[in-house]
Amino acid sequence: EITVGVLAVQGDVREHLAALVSLGAEAVPVRRPAEVAAVDGLVIPGGESTVMDKLVRAFELREPLVRRIAEGLPVYGSCAGMIMLADRIADGRPDQQTLGGLDITVRRNAFGRQVDSFETELDYAWSDPEALAPAGPVHAVFIRAPWVEQAGPDVEVLARVGHGPAAGRIVAVRQGNLMATSFHPEVGADRRIHAEFVSIVREHRLQQSAARQSPERE
Ligand code: GLN
Known binder of ligand: residue 216? Predict the structure, then answer.
């Protein structure tokens, strides 16, 4: 079975662990460099990206995380986690670093300060629409959320806000093994977003064991 870590320096760690367990994955909090090495996939939860960035550096997690992302580790970032995975922050503060990996520019607290949070229904580009789309749109909860202001050519857009002042804004993306949403799927009972990520992790694990069993010959 796969082991999925949840970066546990700050933010809503517990809810993600529970969601992963409900899908049959082994789920473990990740706080130490050695724990980064031991997971098949990683969730970076919502929270506060400036704090998360500082703690990731203080706990010496930044370098092992950046390395594993570059090696193809599947990572799912929600909200602050999306910011951590973004290559660029619009109007970013010079002292805030991200791990990067996703060729996107995010805007923090993009939906406005007067409305701290809102909820809406989203159409989502499921990888297996026959299995997941019939359950209807995603009820998405946004809490001081970022949006994706710009996405590079290799980034797949999975969801956009459907209506209202933010209509058309990109709020879910995937690039290779990296997936990110502006919203918080861990707060409701719908586990389809986590299921999407768990299937990316399982797929990647299978590919890796296949590669180990038949090493390339020169
Ligand atoms: N506004 C937060 C940040 O910039 C993200 C909020 C969240 O994760 N719920 O990091």
Answer: no
**ipTM for the complex?**
0.95
| Cα–Cα distance measured from residue 174 to residue 146, given in angstroms and rounded to the nearest whole number | 16
Residue 30 lies in a domain: yes
**Separation of first and last alpha carbons in the chain:** 32
Closest C-alpha residue for ligand 1 atom 2? 48
- Measure 90 CA to ligand 1 centroid, in angstroms: 14
Number of residues in the chain: 218
148 within a domain of the structure (yes/no)? yes
101 located within any domain: yes
CATH number of the structural domain spanning residue 132: 3.40.50.880
Q: 73: CA distance to ligand 1 center in Å?
A: 23
Token output for 156: 């797949």
Residue-wise pLDDT for 75-85, tens only, equals 999 999 999 99
Closest by alpha carbon to 122, among 142, 107, 106?
142
In a domain, 178, yes or no: yes
Q: Known binder of ligand: residue 49?
A: yes
Residue range 147-180, pLDDT digits in tens: 999 999 999 999 999 988 899 999 999 999 999 9
Domain hosting residue 203, numbered range:
3-213
